[in-house]
Amino acid sequence: MALFEQPDARAEQELLSSPDAATRALSHTAVERDFVNDVYAKMASVYDVVFGPALHPGRVRAVERMDLQPGDRVLEVGVGTGINLGLYPRHCQVSAIDLSPSMLAKAHERVAKKDLSHVQLFEMDAGAIQFPDDAFDIVFAPYVISVVPDPIQVAREMHRVCRPGGRIMFLNHFRSSNPVVSAVERLITPLTVHAGFRADFDLGAMLAQTGLNAVAVERVNIPRLWRLVTCVK
Ligand SMILES: C[S@@+](CC[C@H](N)C(=O)[O-])C[C@H]1O[C@@H](n2cnc3c(N)ncnc32)[C@H](O)[C@@H]1O
Predict the structure, then answer these.
(1) Candidates 33, 42, 74, 100: which one to mutate for ligand 1, based on the most atoms within 8 Å of Cβ?
(2) 40 Cβ closer than 6 Å to some ligand 1 atom
(3) With 0-12 CB in 10 A as exposed, 13-18 as middle and 19+ as buried, what is 155?
(4) What is the pLDDT of residue 4?
(5) How far lies 158's CA from each of 60, 68, 79, 169, in Å?
(6) What's domain 9-232's superfamily in CATH?
(7) With contact defined as beta carbons under 8 Å apart, do 15 and 176 qualify?
(8) CB of 147 closer than 6 angstroms to any ligand 1 atom
(9) Is the dihedral of CA 51, 98, 195, 183 positive or negative?
(10) Which of 48, 76, 130, 147 to mutate to test the pocket of ligand 1 (most atoms within 8 A of CB)?
(11) Low-confidence ranges of the chain (pLDDT < 70)
(12) For the chain, which residues make up each domain, given as ranges?
């Protein structure tokens, strides 16, 4: 199967494998941990309305692609309000972490309301995951990697806690391979960070700088501006 399945696969492949990917900036806008925490403290009460339905097809596709088997151990990174949690089958064990107490409070409410006894929530920084090496079969970051202050460190931590042969999955908006769109994304990112994400986040640079092995990249949501990236450890 080709890595990219969409019509502009060649441009996408070039962006991913270009020689400067190893040195390109992942984003041209930096964010600090306290800033991210403040943004999500303000957004917790409206997050599900603003980012719920439009981004949900990608969440559903990701969990379908996981093809979870009884006993599989899943780590969800940046669980937020827990909007994904009802999608995981009850026969797997889900650990879910987030930095923001306000977002996690919503996730706790959801776990209690839906009686999700297969889910455990932890307040934890994805840049310093408090689980041992090789602890999970799937490590999944839905709409998170362009949010965190240090995405390389988060991706390395996700890789560390994934077992050999397990999968590391990112669901996110990434910088476009179209130069005009990409320039616009870079221009608007100082604004989009206030809504909690960086629009110019560079997938090729992230993969090159972490050494992650991407085996599939598929476009999701409508419009198809987001991608589900599956890597194998
Ligand atoms: C855009 S929301 C994604 C929520 C959810 N995963 C979804 O599918 O909609 C990003 C989440 O990442 C969390 N986050 C940001 N930086 C983090 C970090 N360093 N460690 C853990 N969570 C972090 C934020 O608090 C927020 O809840």
Answers:
(1) 100
(2) yes
(3) buried
(4) 57
(5) 21, 18, 14, 9
(6) Vaccinia Virus protein VP39 (3.40.50.150)
(7) no
(8) yes
(9) negative
(10) 147
(11) 1-12, 14-15
(12) 9-232
Cα(113)–Cα(127) distance, integer angstroms: 30
Q: How far is the CA of 7 from the centre of ligand 1 (A)?
A: 31
Output DSSP code: residue 89.
-
The kind and range of the H/E element at 122 are strand 119-123
Which contiguous run of DSSP H or E holds residue 117? Answer: none
- The terminus-to-terminus CA distance of the chain in angstroms comes to 18
Q: Choose among 160, 162, 132, 126: nearest CA to 144.
A: 126
Q: From residue 37, give the alpha-carbon distance in Å to each of 124, 141, 149, 152.
A: 12, 17, 11, 19
User: Cα separation of 140 and 45, whole Å?
Assistant: 23
Write down the pLDDT at residue 178. Answer: 86
Does ligand 1 come within 6 angstroms of the Cβ of 196? yes
Ligand 1 pocket residue status of 193, Cβ below 6 Å: no
Using DSSP, state whether 166 is helix, strand or coil.
strand
CA-wise closest residue to 81 among 120, 40, 125: 40
Q: Tell me, in angstroms, the distance from the centre of ligand 1 to residue 187's CA.
A: 23
Give the residues across from 75 on adjacent strands: 95, 139
pLDDT score at 67: 97
Instruction: Report yes or no: 85 and 140 within 8 Å, Cβ to Cβ.
Output: no
Cis peptide, bond prior to residue 164, ω within 30 of zero: no
Atom of ligand 1 nearest to the CA of 148: 16
